[in-house]
Amino acid sequence: MPRYAVEYTYVEDVPKRHAVRPRHRDYLAGLAAEGVLLLAGPWAADDGALLAFEAADEAALRGYLDADPYKAAEVISETRITEWNPLLGAWVS
Q: Cβ(51)–Cβ(39) under 8 Å?
């Protein structure tokens, strides 16, 4: 199944983002429990995040991203999707 690296860039309205963060993290935890989300975390500067997914195709991935509470709250200013082929590490079989 294809894997994808997703980079979020956040808007500068930190209080708005923090208000939605618990729902965002609960949503991501559900995707992780399903095995769809492989990892996720914010950049140290807290201006964006990196997420790694395993999805049937990019359309399925976009469905997951569109359901993220951060998307509905409009706290993501940019989303970059790149299909990823990891060569080493825990997810390589």
A: yes
Domain boundaries, the chain: 3-84
Q: What is the pLDDT of residue 93?
A: 66
CA distance readout (Å), 34 to 12, 45, 64: 31, 29, 12
Class of domain 3-84: alpha beta
Tens digit of each residue's pLDDT (9 = 90 or more) over 37-83: 999 999 999 999 999 999 999 999 999 999 999 999 999 999 999 99
Flag whether the pTM goes above 0.90.
yes
| DSSP-assigned letters across all residues of 17-72 | HHHHHHHHHHHHHHHHHHTSEEEEEE-TTSSEEEEEEE-SSHHHHHHHHHTSHHHH
pLDDT at 43: 97
- Is the alpha carbon torsion for 54, 57, 59, 60 positive or negative? negative
Beta bridge partner(s), residue 80: 7
